[in-house]
Amino acid sequence: MRPFAAAFFALLAASCTGEPVPPAAELEKVAVEVEGKRVAIVDGAAFVYDADAKKWEFYKRIVEKGWFEKNYVVEGDRVFRKADDGSKVEVSRHFKSGFEDAASLKDLIGLKHGWTAFTLQSPKTPEVKDYVALRRRILKEGAAFLDNVVEPSTAKAHGGKAALRCRSVASTKEMVCAKASLDTELLHFRKGDDFWFSAWYYIEDRVPFTLMDLESTWIEGHSGIRITTSEAGLGFELKHPPKPHYRPTNPTPIPVGKWFRVVAHVKLDEKDGVCELWQDGVKVCEGKGQTLPMADTVCNSLEVGISATNVESTTWVDDVEVSDREIK
């Protein structure tokens, strides 16, 4: 993986002026170290401390001002996402998918199944513009996959007759990672919420780096918490500076060549969160600390499958469920 600092500061490369710099004392309260640099994020703006000039400087806005009002409507206890055509779609903290009754990837996209997009990042589509263009060709023109694949398939399933097959080639040295994943932006989790996730996985060969991401698409870089893998087993990582990593507390090998169940629980908080993971009913990871990028973050996107890998992998996913209550 490319170092996080390199990826994060790439977002800040376009240094600009015009945004007032908060008092140093305010920035110091939230400042974190990212590979030798002090970074502070206040009200959606990123500031970096210039050690030579001995002062804080504005670098880039990573969250658009007024993003919530521009994109959501609240009606009592219900929250709706505004669509480009002026319509609105209700978002929630509950979601299920068994990938049944879908003949192709195109069938999964839409309100019927609840999935809204997919990502096929590979050596043939290394940049955002490349895999977004491929996504459009597949959905609008019925174009074929290039190298990575995400599709419903009856060749293997845990429950029912179908599962999601995710196939990714290895990334190149120039890429941050490769992806073959499916996502929905119809979720709505905020500070204080309990996020519960359950899914069954079948890894045919090599284990990808991440299996699930809960992200905010309103933050540049799509910050959020994700389930990671390592030789020690399953863990968590918050994709946001200082990027806390919650490693396995009960090291357990990740199965290859058999179905296994993953259950995750995250109490979302920018300081005092909780995260727990179970593999086939056995708790393998637990931690306390930052689990939410910022206090006002809305985690609206769930990404499953191969959400990041450097190695070639074929991973199947089935019986995905999301809730704000414990999933038995």
Describe this structure in words.
- β14 (210-215) and β15 (224-230) form a beta hairpin.
- This protein has five helices and 22 strands.
- It has 328 residues and is mainly beta.
- It is globular.
- The chain folds into two domains: 4-61, no CATH class; 93-323, Sandwich (Jelly Rolls).
- The strands form four sheets. Strands 8, 10, 11, 13, 18, 19, 20 and 22 form an eight-stranded antiparallel sheet that branches.
Overall domain count: 2
- Element order: H for helix, E for strand: HHEEEEHEEEEHEHEEEEEEEEEEEEE
Distance, first to last CA: 34 Å
Shape: globular
Describe the biggest sheet? 8 strands, antiparallel
| DSSP, total strands | 22
CATH architecture of the largest domain: Sandwich
CATH uppermost class of the largest domain: Mainly Beta
Q: Which features characterize this protein?
A:
Jelly Rolls, globular, seven-stranded antiparallel beta sheet, disordered N terminus, eight-stranded antiparallel beta sheet, 5 helices, single chain, 328 residues, 22 strands, mainly beta
